[in-house]
Amino acid sequence: MPTPGERNRPLNVLLLAGTAEAGALDRALADDPRWRVTVSLAGVTRQAKGFAAAVRSGGFGGVEGLAAYLREERIDVVVNATHPFAARMSRTVSQVTGDMALPMVRLLRPPWSPPTGARWIPAADLPDAARLLPTDATGFLALGQRHLAAFHGHPARLVVRTLQAPPDGLLPDARWIIAPPGTSPEEEGRLLAETRTTHLVARNSGGDAGWAKIAAAAQTGLPVIMVARPASPTPQVAQTIPEVLAWLDGLQTGRGD
Q1: Residue 246's pLDDT band (cuts 50, 70, 90)
Q2: Is the pLDDT of residue 75 over 80?
């Protein structure tokens, strides 16, 4: 049975970030004295600003490294709010917290559903998406630099949009657009028309940030090769911030049992 001191101390929360939802959860917990939050970013230093909680950057070093960190920092609960396609990290977190019997919840925003007029071609993964892209197509790859390997050597004309210039040798024959995603379907529609895109290739990330391109494709009847999400390795999944907060409240309530 926990002592009164143990019951009254803030619980140490490790918030694995990398999504807009992680930032919103950080803000929601900021003024609650029941929690002491540490935000972890996997080396994405450009996103390290704007958090209320303390921020650590960089990886953990796999299963053993994460387990050591959780023990050393006396973490009581883990919230995995990484990207829906962060499959490796999610598997590691699920394994380690399961082995250590630590409470863990996966904050996973809902996937997109096809809007009216959409022509979606489902793909199981990125190699499947590359196989489904016709050889005579103009494919707009809205995937990010780390997810392009499956398209190396593809005979289609490729257009790639990323936030940063590509390293040498990464799809050297592609047309690169160095810019953030558009904020409206109209803006995205103009870009798809200007690049003469015949197929949009995207991952089903969900959320508001990338929706404009999906809506633009639906408005013009452009085929979308939509890559399915990896299955979540944990049964404890919340889709919204209020769900996570309610789950955390339940942990606090149960401390005195």
Answers
A1: very high
A2: yes
Q: Could you tell me the sign of the dihedral formed by the alpha carbons of 227, 233, 235, 236, in that order?
A: negative
Report yes or no on whether pTM surpasses 0.70. Answer: yes
Whose structure tokens read 């990125």? 126
- Closest listed residue to residue 56, CA positions, set 95, 25, 17: 17
Which residues belong to CATH 3.40.50.720 in the chain? 4-110+231-256
| Phi, psi dihedral angles at 24 (to 5 degrees) | -65, -40
Q: Domain 4-110+231-256, CATH 3.40.50.720 — does that match?
A: yes
Cα-based angle 244, 20, 150 (whole degrees, multiple of 5):
110
> Tokens 């002592």 map to which residue?
3
Angle (CA) 45-49-53 rounded to 5° is 110
**Distances from the Cα of 14 to the Cαs of 25, 53, 115, 200, 251, in angstroms?**
12, 10, 36, 36, 14
At 96 the pLDDT is 97
Q: Which amino acid is at 117?
A: G
- Domain 119-227 - what CATH class? alpha beta
